[in-house]
Specification:
This is Single domain-containing protein. InterPro entries: SVWC_dom. The protein is mainly beta. About 10% of the residues lie in helices and about 35% in strands. A four-stranded antiparallel beta sheet has the order 1-7-6-5, with helices on one face. The chain has a three-stranded antiparallel beta sheet with strand order 2-3-4, with no helix packed on it. The longest helix has 12 residues.
Amino acid sequence: MLSIYQIILLITICHTVYSATYFGLPKRQTDCSNGTCVDYCDIGIKKIKLLPNSYFDNGCSRMWCNEDFSTYIESCGKSSLDQCTIILNDHKLPYPDCCNKICVTFWNLN
């Protein structure tokens, strides 16, 4: 029988065709600075205190804190269009609408 981590890994591998993902093992932190102790996920990227079963949009990515304090980060995958040399994200839009929105074309002058 597959564990929950193996199932999540399989889902992540299947999902990476369309996006870039990261799954982190549980890393529970406790903050008692305001007199009441609160458990949260340590994402390791910023000092963001995500409570279990919540998410935070950061630029063109989304970070989740799962019930078991594991983390899941999803961002835009690579995309290609024939007429575009590179495709950029539009950071003015929220995730996932920001993904692969700006087509940049470099003309060959030869």
